[in-house]
Automatic annotation (TrEMBL):
Pfam families: PseudoU_synth_1
Keywords: Isomerase, tRNA processing
Keyword tRNA processing set for record: yes
InterPro entries hit by this protein: PsdUridine_synth_cat_dom_sf (IPR020103), PsdUridine_synth_TruA (IPR001406), PsdUridine_synth_TruA_a/b_dom (IPR020097), PsdUridine_synth_TruA_C (IPR020095), TruA/RsuA/RluB/E/F_N (IPR020094)
Name under which the protein is recorded: tRNA pseudouridine synthase
Family classification: Belongs to the tRNA pseudouridine synthase TruA family.
Length: 287
């Protein structure tokens, strides 16, 4: 009786940290079938095929990102089963091998760790932080450097009422039903989430803005931290906070929107553009 190709081999589970510029991808998830769209995981899985695992390598991601959204750091776990007699890859060798075989320049594996066989990249995460970048004072689209156009949301006004935005953000902190900030299509069974931190701050000056160019351009960072988020929650909260910064909404109205639990309201139905959003970090209590 044959024991199959995996007999005597050892399966090792790894947690991989990776980053990507989301412009060219239909999100992080792999796209199946004959579609022209492609996800980040399509390239990672293709690279993993070169590792000659006994069983196909599947990446289980911690955090889904939409088309056009970037990641400074996303994570996924994967299992690799080498042929009998071959030891598991050291984590640093795995990271280097994946980078060697990656065929898209906008994806990079940062590092890898060995984790227990029951570790789950999504469910074990204790914190996720998203960064949203804004640019103000951009009266015309061509005033924004070409290098920044897919990395921030360009706004025409040159002024944001940051104090009002920070006041409004306080209404979002804590545990709430965030139904008003959830887009249709969410697989979540509960819309209750706990937002641990929201910040609005002046970002560093862009190195791509030349001295002779408009000095009206300023860059702003919004950060949101929670264990998990609803579908498009961050982009919807960003749009509402920007409306406050522009004087379209009062800070107290953000509380009313939150308590309405209505995702189809006039203001909360707006979604900030995908290209300004970055998944900044995914943290684990045991790592």
């Amino acid at each position: 009786m044959s024991l199959g190709p995996a007999a005597g081999s050892v399966r090792a589970r790894y947690l991989v940290y990776f980053q990507y510029l989301g412009t060219d991808f239909n999100g992080v998830a792999a796209v199946r079938g004959a579609q022209r769209a492609v996800g980040v995981l399509n390239y990672l899985e293709e690279a993993a095929e070169r590792l000659n695992s006994v069983v196909p390598v599947k990446f289980t991601i911690s955090s889904r990102t939409d088309a056009g959204v970037h990641a400074l750091c996303n994570t996924a776990h994967l299992d690799i089963q080498r042929r009998s007699g071959r030891p598991p890859f050291p984590p640093e060798v795995l990271a280097q091998a994946l980078n060697t075989h990656l065929k898209h320049p906008a994806i990079r594996v940062l590092q890898a760790f060995r984790v227990p066989s029951d570790f789950h990249a999504r469910y074990a995460a204790t914190s996720r932080t998203y960064l949203y970048r804004l640019a103000t004072g951009c009266l015309q689209s061509e005033q924004l450097p070409v290098f920044e156009r897919s990395l921030c949301w360009a706004l025409r006004p040159d002024y944001l009422d940051v104090d009002a935005m920070r006041e409004a953000a306080q209404h979002l902190l804590g545990t709430h039903d965030f139904s008003a900030f959830q887009s249709a299509g969410s697989p979540a069974t509960s819309s209750v989430r706990t937002l641990h931190r929201v910040s609005v701050s002046l970002g560093p000056a862009s190195p791509y803005v030349l001295p002779q160019e408009s000095r009206r351009l300023r860059f702003w960072n919004l950060e949101f931290e929670s264990q998990s988020f609803l579908y498009r929650q961050v982009r919807r909260m960003t749009a509402v906070l920007v409306a406050v910064g522009l004087g379209v909404l009062l800070p107290a109205q953000v509380k009313m929107i939150l308590e309405s639990r209505d995702p189809l309201g006039k203001h909360q139905a707006h979604v900030a553009p995908a290209h300004g959003l970055f998944l900044k970090s995914v943290l684990y209590g045991s790592l």
